[in-house]
Every structure is written in C-alpha cells, then in structure tokens.
Amino acid sequence: xxxxxxxxxxxxxxxxxxxxxxxxxxxxxxxxxxxxxxxxxxxxxxxxxxxxxxxxxxxxxxxxxxxxx
Length: 69
Known about the structure:
Number of helices: 0
Helix content: under 10%
Number of strands: 4
Radius of gyration: 13 Å
Strand order of the largest sheet: 2-1-3-4
Distance between the termini: 13 Å
Shape: elongated
C-alpha cells in the first residue's frame, strides 16, 4: 500500500484494525505491507498529521480489487 501525503512534513500512520500490532508510522517511502488475515473483519486506518491538522480515514477490505499499473 502506498500513502500519499500533501505535505512533506506530514506524518502518516497506518493501522490494520483488528490486528494486534497497532499503528505503524511510515518512513520516507510511504509504503507498507500488511498481512490481511480476514478481509471481512479487518480494515485499514490511515492517519496523516501535518502538525496543524490531522485527518483519519478508514478503508474496508470487502470487495477490494488490486490492479497493476
């Protein structure tokens, strides 16, 4: 999964909801690999904080379609 942040100073964290690891702060490449054990009960929560504002979005995994670029 690749996360794009609008600001270079933004800090992005990704959490696989329904897992035991908790949120992970992304490094400069903004990539993360997640092990999905149950697409019906898990979701992905992404939080981007630029110091002034914080935005959180949660993405469901049901009906997820992956495509190559």
